[in-house]
Amino acid sequence: MKCQEVSEFVSALYDGETIPKDAAEHIGICDHCREHLNAYSSMGNEMRRLASLEPESASKPDTWQQIRRSPAWWQKGFATMRIPRIAFASMLIVILLLCGGLVLVRAGAGGRVLILGYKPVPTGPVLPCTMTIVNNHATTCSHITHLSSGALVFNARFLRQDEDRTEVGIRTKFLLQTESVEGDGEAQLRDVPEQILSFEQGESKRIAVSGMGTIELTGNYLDHIPTLIYQPDETLDPQENEFRVVTPVLIRDQKVVVNIDGNSISCCNADATLMIFVPGEGRYLISGVPFEGAVEGSVHLGQIEFVLEGHKYLLLTSMPITRSEHVWVTHEADFKPSERMVRPEEARDDRPMFLVRSLDKLQQPRIPHS
To answer: Which domain holds residue 24?
Structure first.
């Protein structure tokens, strides 16, 4: 279980209630959840300590209401009860602290997220660079954006956070069309000096990129990790011709073939096609357009059903996949990424993977990485 799922059981455990086994196991090994449990205990002890400091005169009989008869059940809700002022203040403080603690748990359950948007072209769209900020744990994001005149290599690294301002290290490089783009973004920028910038919510800044000009950067914050890392503002409904997949699970004859958690990808080509590779199984191609040798499947929100090679398949994803009601599917049992990907050093045959490309690219002898 995750901390967000366990948070509701922390207070229940402090109250003496029995909680599920997996929640109890998580609290036993998670320092973050144990801190919250200890906080509840400390506040309860402090409330009882402050109540004990009330002078004895405060508890004299004449400071309390004298109840001469027991009211009917419907009258009890309107009855007045006095308690010592210090005890009441202590209780109020504890309530406020507990409420504030619950808000912090909810807001920080997924980790605070910085969405650093950048515009390679002044009139073009804002591209998001998503970084999580959890206990000052450093995270990075790297993009290679292909433009008409070349490619922009962009890398951002979270450095530190000071209240509402976040410090980020940024490296950029512009490659002309005649220059080859090899490796990932970080590999391209090893010799490029880092620029240090800091951002508050909604703040915009500009940086110079040699050979290209300036690009605009804007920092915005979320209290959760977006479902689609590269499209944080994405809505539930797919766009026209969009084909998107979030944490896919492929099931065959009611048995899980592969579960690729924590990843998402989308493509907006008319012939967008999903490729799922499973070690020992080969690859499955699921396309929004008919193609030779493919069988037809049906789409319902985040589910795709199809029958292939005598087996019944079900593909599940966390979001609606496409506006289309039908897809077309094939299976290539002998497919190996190391033999077909353009960058074989990043394509391993021993781990599952998935990507969305145009059908034409996926059917080429070599599959482009991006």
So the answer is: 3-57+78-108
